[in-house]
Design goal:
Layout (H helix, E strand, L loop, with lengths): L2 E6 L4 E5 L2 E12 L5 H5 L18 E9 L5 E9 L21 E12 L22 E15 L13 E2 L3 E3 L2 E3 L4 E14 L2 E12 L6 E4 L1 E2 L1 E4 L2 E7 L12 E2 L17 E4 L4 E2 L8
Parallel strand pairs: 8-19
Antiparallel strand pairs: 1-3, 2-3, 3-5, 4-5, 6-7, 7-12, 9-10, 11-12, 13-18, 14-17, 15-16
């Protein structure tokens, strides 16, 4: 079997659609009658998937089409290039090694509802007598979501360890700086095994949600019992000034005692860190 590379047919064609540049180049080859499309398309002189266009390095070869165009021996290989797959810096795209492709990043939002416990000034939301509403009012809670697609050689080793994890480090994604505690891993999916130029890879997609005020949970310090002033290891029921039992939780002072003369500004909150913490700067974000 003999495949002979004869060279390009012409200088190729080009289009520019809204800034996305596409090129088509054609090559002629000669082969024995026993050679097939795989043998011809594998010729070392042809471009490979991920190769840069010779005049536009940002455009990468995405498609190779092999056609038997002349009787018995003549073949034409068409290479198509595109500059579409790029990162926010305007560089990158397909590579010969798929794991070197830049991460594809997109942004969105998700809408939720949350209980109104604290107002915009950080004061507790309580009634005119200083008691929390039961049940609390519900308000909109929107979160920014970033979706990252990255080619990896295998299922990532961190796929379980980062389940619902919050970042304990400052990091950047798509040139946006994220402070400690603002990001939380939401979803990870792993696609089937693929192959490019002999390299096996999996496309890994993961979503990170962001909370401007972080993911720690602040809970209003209130209840029906307080610490016994005579013995702090014991709890005693709270009674109202008229000696009756309260029908709603009573605000506490942050130290286990009933809060005297409660106001929205003096109400206390207890902060709980519900999620484990991990370093997000080590994730494949580029």
């Amino acid at each position: 079997m003999t495949v002979t590379y004869l060279g390009p047919v012409d200088n190729g064609t080009a289009t520019n659609t809204r800034g996305v540049r596409r090129y088509v180049r054609k090559f002629k080859l000669d082969a024995d009658k026993t050679d097939d499309a795989y043998t011809v398309g594998s010729n070392a002189s042809l471009p490979k998937i991920g190769d840069s266009h010779p005049s536009d390095t940002a455009a990468r070869c995405e498609i190779l089409r092999v056609e038997h165009t002349d009787p018995y021996r003549g073949w034409t290989v068409t290479a198509e290039y595109s500059s579409e797959l790029q990162n926010s810096a305007g560089t990158g795209g397909l590579n010969n090694n798929p794991t070197l492709d830049v991460a594809q990043i997109s942004w969105g939002s998700e809408q939720f509802q949350r209980p109104l416990i604290v107002d915009k000034n950080g004061d507790a939301v309580v009634n005119s007598a200083g008691d929390p509403f039961d049940p609390p009012a519900m308000i909109d809670d929107s979160r920014r979501v970033v979706t990252v697609q990255k080619n990896l050689t295998a299922v990532p080793s961190w796929i379980l360890d980062y389940q619902d994890a919050v970042n304990n480090d400052a990091f950047s994604v798509d040139s946006v700086s994220i402070a400690i505690g603002q990001a939380k891993m939401q979803m990870v999916s792993v696609g089937p095994v693929q192959e490019r130029n002999g390299t096996l890879f999996r496309q890994v997609t993961f979503q990170i949600q962001f909370q401007r005020d972080g993911w720690a949970v602040d809970i209003l310090d209130a209840g029906f019992r307080e610490k016994d002033p005579a013995d702090s290891t014991k709890r005693i029921a709270i009674t109202l000034d008229d000696g009756t039992d309260p029908s709603t939780p009573v605000l506490l002072n942050g130290s286990g005692s009933k809060l005297d003369d409660p106001t929205p500004a003096t109400a206390q909150f207890i902060t709980f860190n519900a999620y484990k913490e991990r370093a997000f700067s080590s994730l494949p974000l580029t």
